[in-house]
Inverse folding.
């Protein structure tokens, strides 16, 4: 009976288990990436609520046994958004994962570590590599504009130039560029050497609570760049990306010969004088077309590979970038290579190296826009042949009617070539001795070696345009920087709710520069290049050289803790010692703290359906700045000369006055942020408020009288200033898909006010010298880089208006004025026009910065349109002087109709005059100030991914236009170029710099 | 409580309705009427002036309510002015002394203008008055545009007791010259010349019957008074000393190369060139003859060919005379002439030498890259050029070198001056850093009053050949900048002979 019962029981159990098995099924499928349809290896596929799971293999496929037909599968992988799918009786579930540029589970690189984005307590923005490579630029920062809140980027213009980057405003007069850190190695403030295709991501540490871990150099923000790495268990994949394009810059439209002559003569005739017009060999030369090419070619090619086994990951690339200039001379190119590899010997030891050799070369791009626009169009390019000499450089024509140098001749004489070799190497060793503990030591070297050769031929076009002896020079410079970083990081979760991440570290850095230069004159030939050697020079030998070494030693520590992924605290401290400061002030301590409350994790948020993410952040920190010339603590001797009766008597005098009490300047930063996600994270909104204030700002104040010296050399550096930047940022991103159509739209708005709290406490700081005055004034308590001058009140239309512009007794405010001249306002009504009537007439920094980034895909087509713009900034447009013909220079086409005459009283520009006794064009006034607001389409790109049968391959073609169009009321060549031109205290002045070109590109991306 | 609120509301309403009604105009609140009367305006009703003479419209404005603004309007004279007292004064004025300058252009052709003055008080009440501006007045004295200055000398022969003084006079007046009175009080001689009402009147007068009693070897000096009258009776006076003697050894003798007497004063520095006084009655001049047959003469005064001019004797052109002389002709062009005259012997000689033989003190080839910038033997050479320096060696009005005569330079660009401007300069090389006196010419202080057109070399670097040629020294503290007034508004050019040191600042056109 017992056996019978047992049998029955077994049968029942088998029956029940059969029933259960019948309710389960095996599920297979394939996981691919939405980005490139490539299989994803190592994706975790887990039955929700169980331990039943697996990972995808090299083909991206998976197989799960015994899956309940009503179960839900969770697909997750670092770097991709997590997806959930109900099994619903299916046995095959294929899925695509989206690269998680905005997902909360994304990993964000922070200084000396990584955290999940959802765990961030600071203001850190991430830009993925593919967002950078959307644009073809020589410097990755050029592609960042409009993509990161609060980051202003102004392109440098010509080939090989460096963009200016400002993160959350300016709090120091000692530079504004952030610190760049590539794979943990600080590389200064220029990343021209990097191949944009090598970049996996860029993290912008915007607030001090994030950047304080970089201590002395974090005051302008830190940008962490992580290069691409291979993945474990990933088959080798090759990528080839290429783009070729044409860059164009707009012709400013200068006057032709007839209008030039008309204007030239009128300037004198209006003054009652006879124009010294020289009509010899008159022609009509379009100097813009003769000097500036219609387009410059830009090209970019990168062959990359990556892969990995369970022990070894690797990636590498070989890239070539070249940017031609718009002149017949000048280019910049770079050949870059990169090998990143990591060996995992066992669970404890990892060894890796990032090795990136490169070479850059360039011919100096001429900057003769000024002469191109000034040159007399009646002058031919060459002299008459009967006047030619054996020296071809003599045969160019001298300007007939002004002093501008022949720009075609200038470009023809250019011979300035540089080549630079460099390597960035980052070997590291990582140990994981116990669970959660990581010990890492990394020794990075960034070494560069540059040789620059210059040759200027002898030429004699005119007494005022000649060089008697040719000259040759060679300059060799080397930079060798190393950085030794040692960190110990412990990560552990206690009781499933206490999450701890603690790090301590020690770094030592050394920066070394050495330079030598030699020159001679009078080599035997102007045309035989092989003779352009120093040894061939026979006259005026010169040589010079210098070297410098700076060191930095730092101790750092950081603790990140969160409770139950709801309450977050981060605190860090870094102690820096720098050789730039005197012994007694070498060390500075830079602490930071930040907190966050992930409100969405609270129970009371479980039942609401409005938010899918809600987090409140607040941070505080101190960061430093040491960006002043070395040796400012030392008093040094210099030389000078007295001249008595034409004889020079050299002497030795005080050269620099040192301040032995110099120490760090410090920036203190507060930040409050709110991250919100709505509608299943389709809508994400971030709002931040911040304030940065510098203390003890390093500033060179005018000679203090107590020094007893009167010479200007006795300016004294001191920790005396303070500046403040305060503003807000708002980011709204919407991403969604509908069948075959996916799209995301991001709007970035930010605003920052830059204020000088105190410079020296003495006189205002005037900057940007022009026409014996200054364009900008920086005053304690006021915004920086504001234009300061007279208020222009229009043009005098008749003598009655001239005479009415007088004091109460009829004494003229502008005694030299005539009808057609500019009227300047007597602001203080004191009956005279003097410097007391000057006021602030414009602000260089914008009230609002706007970034609008959109991306659409429909089946195999994708469209990207990125925009950037500013509102409320002014530009001091010095190029308006080109309506005056000053010095006989050429004028903009249409000047005749735009300048005031008795029969053209509605004109916008004052009368033509050679003497300009009223100072129409030599007075710093609001006449020159224009609204610099603009809205520019930075990128318009249409792509097509060719559907291929073999999913291991992908092929994409694209056409794009960079700087496609600009909506602006600004009359100059490029409002973006002018917006951040100049240094911190003299920003926003248009000096006719190389404008941002419009670039038409065709690109091919091939993966296999 | 409700009652208090209601009361407060009523008070506020009353204030809004009536509290502001005291101010009746748009000059803003806060100016309550006092007498509600229009301003009292007293102005000069008629002002007489002349073209080119500005006038002041004066008067007084009184208003108990307070004066807001005063407007002046006369479109014909380009007057459309509002004096906004509320804007420019810190406090409300009840009394204001009007004094407003009205400009009258010198080319104004109108005769009578009505200028309206209107005063408005803070209540918006306005009072207007008309001021007549009459341009028929005469407020300008006549001007002696050309008159002997300093002293004149007349040479007489032994036994003569009277002589005639030829006088060239030029008087200008905006209304017209009525007459010129010439008198020598010592001998009670008076002569009147009618100006005929001309605005620019020139005449040559032979002042006859000048009697004297001359002892052998002696001389007599009379003061000659000149008074010019315009049609309105306004006068101007001038005087000079007339010395009567036998032939004397004049201290200064000038070479003049112009024919028209008016041209003698057209040069800012004065046209005649001071000659070297090499011995008793003997004078030597060196002169570059640009064109053939240039006519020259020698005069002991600077602004006139009279009373004494030495030239070729019409009867024997190899001789020199002061009696009705002819100009001496320099026949050969492109050479330097060395001219020596002896006024006592009545002789002169002409000697030529080519440009190549003339040596000037310029240390380097003009326009070459040869300026030793640092004075250290040439570590840095810059372009060497010179010109007029009005301020510092970094700002030079550059010369252009003459193609035919390398010693000759002239300004590249003309310079404009206004009559009466003080022209203050010397000749200097350009230097990028403003170093002084590498190559320069100044005027000897001893000759400044006699002839500021003769420059002497003062540079620290000099052409050794010039020094070796003998009798040349480099100037020093005895030399100075030229400071002269500009005689007439216009555009001028400068010509300079580095060999002779003679500079001419002459009209450009």
């Amino acid at each position: 009976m017992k056996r019978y019962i047992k049998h029955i029981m077994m049968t029942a159990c088998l029956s029940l288990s059969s029933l259960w098995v019948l309710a389960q099924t095996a599920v297979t499928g394939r996981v691919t990436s939405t980005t490139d349809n490539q299989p994803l290896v190592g994706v975790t596929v887990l039955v929700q609520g169980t331990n039943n799971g697996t990972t995808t293999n090299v083909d991206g496929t998976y197989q799960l046994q015994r899956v309940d037909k009503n179960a839900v599968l969770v697909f997750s992988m670092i770097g991709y958004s997590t997806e959930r799918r109900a099994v619903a009786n299916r046995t095959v579930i294929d899925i695509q994962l989206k690269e998680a540029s905005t997902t909360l589970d994304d990993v964000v690189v922070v200084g000396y570590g990584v955290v999940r984005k959802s765990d961030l307590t600071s203001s850190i923005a991430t830009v993925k590599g593919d967002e950078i490579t959307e644009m073809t630029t020589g410097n990755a920062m050029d592609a960042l504009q409009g993509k990161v809140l609060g980051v202003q980027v102004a392109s440098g213009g010509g080939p090989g130039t460096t963009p200016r980057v400002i993160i959350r405003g300016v709090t120091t007069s000692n530079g504004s560029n952030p610190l760049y850190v590539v794979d943990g190695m600080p590389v200064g403030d220029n990343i021209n050497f990097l191949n944009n295709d090598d970049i996996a991501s860029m993290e912008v540490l915007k607030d001090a609570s994030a950047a304080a871990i970089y201590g002395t150099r974090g005051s302008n923000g830190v940008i962490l760049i992580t290069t691409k790495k291979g993945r474990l268990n990933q088959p080798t994949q090759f990528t080839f990306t290429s783009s070729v394009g044409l860059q164009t810059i707009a012709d400013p439209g200068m006057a032709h010969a007839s209008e030039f002559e008309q204007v030239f003569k009128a300037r004198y005739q209006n003054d009652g004088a006879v124009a010294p017009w020289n009509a010899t060999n008159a022609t009509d030369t379009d100097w813009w077309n003769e000097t500036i090419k219609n387009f410059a070619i830009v090209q970019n090619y990168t062959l990359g590979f990556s892969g990995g086994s369970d022990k070894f990951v690797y990636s590498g690339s070989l890239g070539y970038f070249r940017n031609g200039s718009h002149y017949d001379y000048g280019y910049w190119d770079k050949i870059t290579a990169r090998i990143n590899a990591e060996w995992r010997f066992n669970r404890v030891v990892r060894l890796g190296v990032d090795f990136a050799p490169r070479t850059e070369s360039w011919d100096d791009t001429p900057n003769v826009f000024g002469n191109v626009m000034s040159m007399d169009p009646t002058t031919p390019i060459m002299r008459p042949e009967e006047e030619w000499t054996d020296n071809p450089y003599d045969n160019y024509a001298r300007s007939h009617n002004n002093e501008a140098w022949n720009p075609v001749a200038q470009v023809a004489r250019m011979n300035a070539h540089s080549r630079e070799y460099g390597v960035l190497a980052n070997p590291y060793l990582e140990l994981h001795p116990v669970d959660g503990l990581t010990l890492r030591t990394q020794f990075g070297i960034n070494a560069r070696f540059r040789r620059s050769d210059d040759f200027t031929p002898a030429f004699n076009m005119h007494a005022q345009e000649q060089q008697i002896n040719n000259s040759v020079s060679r300059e060799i410079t080397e930079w060798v920087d190393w950085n030794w970083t040692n960190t110990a990081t412990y990560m552990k979760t206690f009781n499933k709710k206490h999450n701890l991440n603690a790090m301590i570290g020690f770094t030592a850095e050394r920066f070394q520069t050495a330079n030598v230069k030699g020159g001679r004159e009078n080599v035997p030939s102007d045309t035989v290049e092989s003779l352009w050697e120093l040894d061939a020079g026979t006259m005026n030998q010169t040589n010079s050289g210098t070297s410098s070494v700076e060191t930095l030693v730092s101790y750092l520590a950081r603790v990140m803790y969160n409770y139950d992924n709801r309450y977050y605290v981060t605190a860090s401290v870094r102690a820096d010692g720098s050789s730039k400061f005197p012994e007694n002030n070498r060390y500075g301590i830079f602490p930071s703290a930040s907190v966050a409350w992930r409100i969405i994790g609270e129970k009371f948020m479980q039942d609401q359906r409005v938010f899918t993410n809600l987090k409140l952040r607040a941070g505080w920190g101190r960061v430093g700045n040491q960006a002043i010339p070395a040796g400012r603590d030392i008093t040094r001797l210099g030389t000078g000369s007295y001249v008595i009766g034409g004889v020079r008597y050299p002497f030795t005098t005080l050269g620099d006055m040192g301040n032995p009490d110099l120490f760090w300047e410090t920036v203190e930063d507060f930040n409050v942020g709110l991250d919100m996600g709505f509608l299943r994270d389709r809508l994400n909104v971030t709002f931040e408020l911040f304030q940065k204030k510098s203390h003890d700002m390093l500033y060179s104040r005018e000679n203090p009288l107590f020094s007893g010296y009167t010479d200007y050399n006795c300016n004294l550096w001191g920790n005396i200033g303070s500046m403040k930047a305060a503003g807000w940022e708002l980011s709204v991103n919407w991403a969604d898909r509908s069948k075959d159509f996916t799209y995301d739209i991001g709007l970035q708005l930010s605003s920052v006010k830059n204020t000088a709290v105190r410079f020296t406490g003495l006189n205002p700081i005037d900057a940007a010298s022009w026409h014996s005055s200054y364009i900008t004034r920086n005053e304690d308590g006021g915004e920086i880089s504001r234009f300061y001058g007279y208020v222009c009140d229009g043009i005098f239309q008749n003598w009655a208006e001239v005479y009415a512009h007088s004091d109460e007794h009829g004494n003229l405010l502008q005694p030299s004025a005539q009808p057609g001249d500019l009227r300047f306002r007597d602001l203080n009504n004191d009956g005279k026009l003097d410097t007391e009537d000057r006021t602030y007439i414009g602000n260089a920094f914008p009230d609002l910065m706007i970034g609008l980034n959109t991306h659409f895909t429909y089946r195999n087509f994708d469209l990207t349109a990125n925009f950037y713009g500013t509102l409320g900034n002014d530009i001091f447009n010095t190029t308006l002087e080109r309506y005056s013909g000053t010095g006989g220079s050429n004028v903009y086409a249409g000047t005749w109709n735009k300048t005031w005459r008795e029969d053209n009283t509605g004109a916008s520009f004052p009368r033509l005059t050679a003497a300009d006794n009223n100072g129409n064009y030599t007075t710093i006034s609001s006449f020159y100030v224009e609204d610099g607001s603009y809205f520019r389409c930075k990128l318009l790109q249409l792509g097509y991914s060719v559907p291929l049968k073999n999913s291991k391959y992908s092929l994409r073609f694209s056409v794009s236009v960079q700087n496609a169009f600009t909506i602006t009321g600004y009359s100059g060549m490029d409002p973006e170029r002018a917006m951040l031109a100049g240094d911190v205290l003299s920003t926003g002045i248009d000096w006719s710099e190389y404008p941002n070109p419009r670039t038409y590109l065709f690109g091919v991306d091939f993966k296999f | 409580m409700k009652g208090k609120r209601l009361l407060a509301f009523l008070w506020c309403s009353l204030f809004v309705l009536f509290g502001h009604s005291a101010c009746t105009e748009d000059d803003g609140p806060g100016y309550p009427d006092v007498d509600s009367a229009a301003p009292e305006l007293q102005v000069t009703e008629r002002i007489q002036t002349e073209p080119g003479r500005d006038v002041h419209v004066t008067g007084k404005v009184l208003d108990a309510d307070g004066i807001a603004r005063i407007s002046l309007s006369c479109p014909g004279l380009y007057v459309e002015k509002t004096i906004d007292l509320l804007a420019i004064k810190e406090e409300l004025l009840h009394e204001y002394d009007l004094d407003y300058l009205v400009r009258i252009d010198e080319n104004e052709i109108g005769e009578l203008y009505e200028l309206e003055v209107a005063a408005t008080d803070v209540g918006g009440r306005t009072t207007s008055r008309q001021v007549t501006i009459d341009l028929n007045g005469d407020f300008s004295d006549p001007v002696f545009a050309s008159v002997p200055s300093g002293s004149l000398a007349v040479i007489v022969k032994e036994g003569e007791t009277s002589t005639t003084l030829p006088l060239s006079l030029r008087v200008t007046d905006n209304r017209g010259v009525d007459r010129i009175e010439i008198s020598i009080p010592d001998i009670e001689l008076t002569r009147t010349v009618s100006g005929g009402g001309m605005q620019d009147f020139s005449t040559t007068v032979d002042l006859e019957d000048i009697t004297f009693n001359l002892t052998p070897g002696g001389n007599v000096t009379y003061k000659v008074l000149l008074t010019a009258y315009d049609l309105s009776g306004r006068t101007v006076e001038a005087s000079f000393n007339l010395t009567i003697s036998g032939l004397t050894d004049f201290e200064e003798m000038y070479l003049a190369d112009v024919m028209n007497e008016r041209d003698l004063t057209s040069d800012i520095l004065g046209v005649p060139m001071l000659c070297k006084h090499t011995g008793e009655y003997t004078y030597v001049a060196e002169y570059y003859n640009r064109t053939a047959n240039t006519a020259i003469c020698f005069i002991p005064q600077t602004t006139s060919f009279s009373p004494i001019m030495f030239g070729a004797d019409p009867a024997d052109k190899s001789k020199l005379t002061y009696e009705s002389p002819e100009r001496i002709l320099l026949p050969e062009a492109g050479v330097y002439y060395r001219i020596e005259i002896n006024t006592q012997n009545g002789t002169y000689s002409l000697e030529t030498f080519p440009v190549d033989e003339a040596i000037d003190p310029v240390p380097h080839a003009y326009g070459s890259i040869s300026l030793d910038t640092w004075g250290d033997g040439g570590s840095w050479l810059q372009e060497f050029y010179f010109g007029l320096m009005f301020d510092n060696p970094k700002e030079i009005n550059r010369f252009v070198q003459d193609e035919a005569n390398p010693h000759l330079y002239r300004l590249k660009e003309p310079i404009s001056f206004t009559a009466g401007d003080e022209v203050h300069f010397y000749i200097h090389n350009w230097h990028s850093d403003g170093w002084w006196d590498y190559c320069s010419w100044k005027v000897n202080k001893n000759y400044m009053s006699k002839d500021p057109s003769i420059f002497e070399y003062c540079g620290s670097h000099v052409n050794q050949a010039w020094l070796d040629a003998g009798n040349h020294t480099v100037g020093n503290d005895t030399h100075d900048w030229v400071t002269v007034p500009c005689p007439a508004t216009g555009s001028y050019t400068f010509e300079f002979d580095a060999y002779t040191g003679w500079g001419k600042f002459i009209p450009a056109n």
Summary: Residues 2-22 of chain A form the longest helix (21 residues). The radius of gyration of chain A is 33 Å.
